[in-house]
Amino acid sequence: MYTQAxxxxxxxxxxxxxxxxxxxxFQKKIDADLKIEPYxxxxxxxxxxxxxxxxxxxxxxxxxxxxEGNWVTRAPTLKRKAALLAKIQDESGHALYLYSAAETLxxxxxxxxxxxxxxxxxxSSIFNYPALTWGDMGTIGWLVDGAAIMxxxxxxxxxxxxxxxxxxxxxxxxxxxxxxGYDIVNILCNGSKAQFEMAQESLNRFWWxxxxxxxxxxxxxxxxDKSNIWKIKRFSNDVLxxxxxxxxxxxxxxxxxxxxxxxxxxxxxxxxxxxxxMNWSEFFDVIKGNGKCxxxxxxxxxxxxxxxxxxxxxxxxxxxxxxxxxxxxAAE
Length: 332
Ligand code: BYC
Known about the structure:
Helix content is 66%, strand content 2%. By secondary structure, the chain is mostly helical. It has a two-stranded antiparallel ribbon. Helix 6 packs antiparallel against helix 10. The protein starts with 10 loop residues before the first helix and ends with a helix. It binds benzoyl coenzyme A. The site of benzoyl coenzyme A has 26 residues, from helix 3 and helix 6.
């Protein structure tokens, strides 16, 4: 809805602004920790970076609900079923805030949806791994939502106002999700031998993919990175990954679980848990579309989109009727 209302300058005029007083004013605002809002001037590359990141994030929330959706009918108790349903509903809500924030940058919701459905947009690699056991519902909440919080808390301070504001609520809900996941794993770890083994086996499968959620290795120094200069990205992928490992290893040990990493070791000098190398060829393969579940996830999404055509049609007809009622002469 914001899309049509945006003021669009010619590319030549916009390029001149980027280097001129408008561009300087923009960076000064960012340096002063002020927010950039939809109608403010912003360089084309800033807009593009945000469009890419926010829409990828929104797509991840939508696709992320799929592995969990498969477990709603198999949750072991009514309480667990209700909590899982609430979590899935939250994730869909996150996608709504994020698509709305992305729309303020000038691309419609329909265009973003098309990019997801026709495979030109990315979503988080983690959702291309299957959820095979009830233990995975615990591990996903604990590790996947845990990694998401680590990555997203700094985004609450992102320079783009609509994204930063959306992230505040998203992070609050993600921390509930992380707690419910940890609670499931905790119960399994304190249950029968078979339950404990289910938790360990799930951790074995999800540990490395969870670390890959933070993206490719990029060192520690982001000072030359545009995303950092624009205060979109505040910490490098590697810094956030290390923070996640440091927070999660003691939780696993508390549960009596073993992290599936032969070289994992506490480093007294740095205060960090040193860990092994990820399988980067697997990561790039998954984001290219060749993971275990990429095809299945997309075919379910496309099917859901097609099945929902009548809802979109009905709401459009209803919206037109309302508009006609408000302007009676238009209906004549
Ligand atoms: N998976 O230069 P880099 C959730 C792409 S969902 C796929 O480091 P950047 C949840 C990256 O996009 C959590 N692709 O990029 C939902 C880039 O590709 P393009 C999702 C990945 O943007 C339901 C290329 O690789 N969270 O919370 O600086 C249930 C080079 O990477 C991945 C967000 O989206 C990946 N793992 O950093 C439970 C948070 N990693 O665009 C939980 C917002 C990298 O050049 N996003 N790529 O074609 C971010 O913070 C950043 O976009 C990333 C990547 C850290 C993910």
